[in-house]
Each structure stands twice: as structure tokens, then as C-alpha cells.
Amino acid sequence: MSHLHFRLRFFLAALILIMVSGTIGFMFTEHLSLTDAFYFNIVTIATVGYGDIYPVTQTGKMLAVALILLGTGAFLGVVAYATEIMLSRHELQARHRKLHLIIGVYFSEVGTRLLAICAQADPSLAQFREQLAIKDHWTEQDFQRADKGIAPHAFKADEAKVDLAELRDFLASRRQSLVALLENPLTLEQENFTGHLQAVFHLTEELSARDDLANLPPPDHKHLGGDLNRAYSSLVRQWLPYMAYLRHNYPYLYSLSVRTNPFNPEASATVQ
After folding, report:
1. Whether residues 162 and 174 fall in one domain
2. Distances in Å between the alpha carbon of 100 and those of 24, 42, 190, 195, 243?
3. Which domain range does residue 82 map to?
4. pLDDT tens figures, 116-164
């Protein structure tokens, strides 16, 4: 949209320059006051032409012709690009709403459960639980503070505490949902979310490729732990902006998400 803003600024600057030049030109060529010259300039550019003021000199007539040709074009350019920017902004907002709807489906189908599994196996989570204990009354500043607080931390779950077979079965049952999300063209507009989906899909493939997850050699167990934590760390950073979006746009969904916070071991959807 930057090129549209550049063109709008160009035509707006041209229109202002034409108006100033035309006003000054009519003051000298037609011997008009500043008010009358400005008024004549406007009705000329707008091609209204009430007839109460009109050029009587040859120079004034040529100036009026130039203003009609140049001023009308600049005015139409301003209107056209301003309208296009508004329509583009409306379309962009609609695409953002659709994208967040897709992200919401992901958290309902996969994300929230995956967060809960990883959080329960995260030995260092206690020191960050306060930043992730989202409340109903949180403001935008609270979300920004939480995001800043967790930024330097690499969230890691202890893979030894995760039931990998259960995780494999869960992710395998959501494979079609993951594929559908990856195939959605809107998903590609959010690189961080796309990268996270790819990490989760890779984890799903790695787990599904092993028949016996209970008797893995230590190097392979560590390898799966790396895949798990890649998905976990990126998921936490998707979750906070998603919750902030819900709070601002869908308070009823936000309320449920707060009550089922995957980082709260005592979370319950039941309203107390």
C-alpha cells in the first residue's frame, strides 16, 4: 500500500501547489482580493463556474484553462487514490480477521492442547507463570509487558516427562486439520504462524515414523525433544498475540480462553 500513499501525497502536493499558484495568479492578473481569487480558483478547479466571477484578461483566461486541465486532474487523482487506500485498508482488515479466525481454529484443534502438554513438562515454567497467567482485566500494556518478559527465554519441555505415544496419536488425529491450515493461502501471509505450523507438522511426521516410542535410544529421544521444543517455543509466542486479539475483538472467546489457560494447572472452563 506504500505506493498508493506515495501517489496520494504526490497528487495532494500538486493540488496544493496549483491552488496556491492559481490564487496568486488571479490576484495579479484579474486584480482580485485574496478571498475572491481563492474562491475563483476553487470554482474553476471544481468546474462549477457560477458566473459571478470570470476572467476578463487574456492571461487570466489562459490561467483558468490551465487550472481546469491541471487542477481537475490533480483533484481527481487525490479522490481516486484516497478511495483506493480506504478500500485497500478495508480489504486488509478483512484478511486479518480471516487470518485470526484460522489461528483461532488452530488453537481450538491443536494449539491449546499442545501447549498444555508441553507446559506440564516444562521444568522452568514456574519463573514465567506469572507473565502467562492472563486475567480478564488485562490491558494491551499487560500483554506487551508479558511478551517482553518472555522474549529472551527459550521454552523447553523435558521430553522424558512427555508421553510421546499419546502426543503422536493426538497430532496424528489432527493431521488433516494441519494440512488444511498449511494449504490455506491466507496462512502464508503470516510467516511466524506458517513457520510454527511447519514445526508442528514436522514433529507429527517424526513421531509417526517411529513404531516404538517407549524404547528409543537416548540420541533419538533427544532429537525428538528438539523437534518438540521448536514447536513449543514458537507456539508460546503465537499464543500471547492471539489472546490479545481475542480480548480486543471477541471478549466471550477471550473469557473462555482465560479460564482454560494451558499454563494454569488448575484451569477449568467452569465459571466459578
Report:
1. yes
2. 53, 46, 10, 16, 11
3. 2-90
4. 999 999 988 888 777 888 888 899 999 998 888 888 888 899 888 999 9
